[in-house]
Amino acid sequence: MLVYLTDFSAAADIFKFFSVFIVFIAVIVAAYYFTKWYAKSGFIKKGSNNVEIVETFQMSPGKIVYILRIGQRYVSVVTSKDNVVKLVELSEDELDFQKADIIKETSFKDIMGQMLKNKKEDKKH
Prior knowledge:
The chain is of the alpha+beta class and 125 residues long.
């Protein structure tokens, strides 16, 4: 009789584990689909025709310069952890709207090879 109770207890524990696991997976799947639906639903305002971030530049960790287009005006501001400071208004003539080709298409292998080469050269010196 004692053996039968311990077997039943183990089976009940396994059943409880799998039922909790299935509920956990169901909650994760439901959260995934809910967030996808919510993002597409339009409840989140995705943008504006009057405000646009034209360019950003990080001066130091936590301090970023933004050039904003607000209506027909351009404004530069600096943001830090606790505040936002307006620097200057800019005219469209003062800005260069050409995209900088800073990032070249390179493979991970090329980058790692260059890093290893630089590391070997540093050890020689």
